[in-house]
Amino acid sequence: MIHDNTEQSPCIVTAASLPYKHATIKFDDLLLFNETSHSVYRKMNSSIPLYFGKPSPAIDAAWAELLQYEYPAITSEEMALNPFLSYNADKDKHPVTGRYHFALDVFHNLHCLNAVRKELDKDYYGAHDHGHVGRQAQYQQHHNPLDAAQRDHIDHCMNHIRQSLQCRPDLSAAAMHVFEDLEGSKYFLGNAEQHTCYDWESIMRWAAGREFDPGYTTPVG
Fold this sequence. Notes:
The protein is 35% helix and 14% strand. It is built from seven helices and eight strands; from the N terminus they run E-E-E-H-E-H-E-H-H-H-H-E-E-E-H. Helix 3 (105-120) crosses helix 6 (148-167) and helix 4 packs across helix 5 (132-140). It is elongated and about 65 Å long. Pathway: Mycotoxin biosynthesis. Belongs to the ustYa family.
């Protein structure tokens, strides 16, 4: 990670277009210890969509909804106010919308996390998925070793997520507890009780009001 203490570039998402609301949130999916069975289990909130687990159409639908606003269009006025976003006037205009598009980095991170998720179950997605990860998985069924382009994509994704976590670290504290199973193995478990977050729904509402890429291409990054 490169540290740069210079003034930050202006952002398309301004206080005027998207107020940075904060919310105190309890995270879903906690790792807990069952004192009766002496085993670790996941405590889930059934009212929240499932994003991880055994591959299923429901999980894929949850991710599709989460990423539906991944590539919004940028207006000419916004382009003028944000010269750090450089576009090739001939190549970068979308052939269907006739617009230029951008991505908020939070969606880049979610895209990458979804790509890593699919890589964990690449046999399933090689047969069921029609995105770039699925196509790579189909390729891998006939070409060994692991396709270098797909490995580069996954490594890029994990490293991008790492840098993003370090860029805006969550400093919510968790009390760590020691548990022991029936075989004498010890577990060190803890979950932060509350997190102060940007209000995700306000971001999605802002994003929903913009023009989006209808799927002409499937970006790789």
